[in-house]
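SAMPLE LOG
Freezer: B-3
Tube label: C17
Construct: single chain, 473 aa
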Amino acid sequence: MIQGCMKLLSEDQLDLLNSAVIELLETTGCRIDHEEVRSLLSHRGAEVDEVTKVVRFPKVSILEVLDWQRENNPRAINQSDRPYSTMGGIHVYVYDWKSKSRWRPDTKMLLDLVHMGDSLSEISRVGAPVINSEVDPRFESIETMALMLKNTRKPGGMEVIYPEHVEYMARIGGIYSDKDFDGKFIDDSNFTTSPLIMTRRMLGCLIQKTKFNIPCVTGSQPVSGISSPVTLAGTVALGCAEIIAGWIVGKTINPNVALGGIICSGSLDMKTTEVCFSSPEAVLQDACVIQMFEDLYGGGVISGSSYIDAKTPNAQAAFEKAFKKIALRINMGLGGDFTIGTLDAGAVFSPVQAMLDIDFNGVMWRYLMGVEVSQETIALEVIDEVGIGGNFLETSHTLEHFRKNWYPSILDRQAWDEIADEVGGDEQLIINAEEKWREAIARYEPFDLKPYKAKAIDKVVEEARENLYDLVM
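STRUCTURE (predicted):
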């Protein structure tokens, strides 16, 4: 197994950035758009301005939360014994390769994608990958979780839109798990609004999640040149400060909550005025934030490496996925984001891209597994037995070990045959991916959730519809 990672920042640079992060939290602070949270922070010694809603954090609180993370975050990352990918992210659009168009997904499309994920052995967790356009946003998270839990054997996390959704979602999770409440199917991320704002909705979701032992995973998404300084170091400092501020708030609300973070920064392309998430600047910013947390703050932060700028499955998507994921894996070691199918900065889910991503995640998994070195794998006796100029294909040693290699399901490893076979080869990869996800849907075997559980889940959904009808969006 490959261990360690590349260091982008020297000790002097780390010290300089750390001083800036502490000063930002102490002097600039954050705007906290939630009266209850401001009151709790005030009682913990924070300087609170009720007019501007700005909270400045005392150094003792900053150091306290970082000490806790260093002592309690499990630093070792266990590599899975097989490649895996995950689905999730509630994308707004689905890209259809056949029609070359994107559209708002409906219930059927959502179900198809959940069935696809359930059927594919390479996918370990199936979260809701798209927003269901047929459901009122006031109930959408709740209804989608219900649909997901009734249709997959390996449910993942469901993102929360409103704080009022959390309790209903925890009740539905509890029905599935034979508990009163279960928050493990609720996504744990809570994103700040750069620069240095925690909105009322974000904080409301955090408060509700901590009631059900859901970790406080603070996300930061600064864009250098717009919502953070155009200089990379300034964006790194800001991203670190936002995540630490979220940790302080989380620990203030619930001292026992576990902590984590996500950095998914972007950069402004001054030529096009477009926000980019696959630029070298964006990737460097993420990598440096991760190093800050690994070297100084106790770790626990990953990057949203699935966010790229390409809008369709094409050569640009392949380039950006490869560059971003490899660069960040080098910096993060074995941690990271194995979400599949994401295009256009998180706006689009593409099942074709998801199939291609599965192969890419498999490549990364096998590379990170490294080289097993033992007397058995060195195989001196086998080499001697086969002899000079021999062939190892038919040995029992090959039969026993060849399955440890990784084999793609989409990528083409065939030798050159005729020109006609190679013309349009790139498109053939897309065709193979298109066929794979549709075949997965076709072979889906219905998940038989016990009828009494399905009925209980439906009852919670109906209750939520009645009680949240007047929810202000």
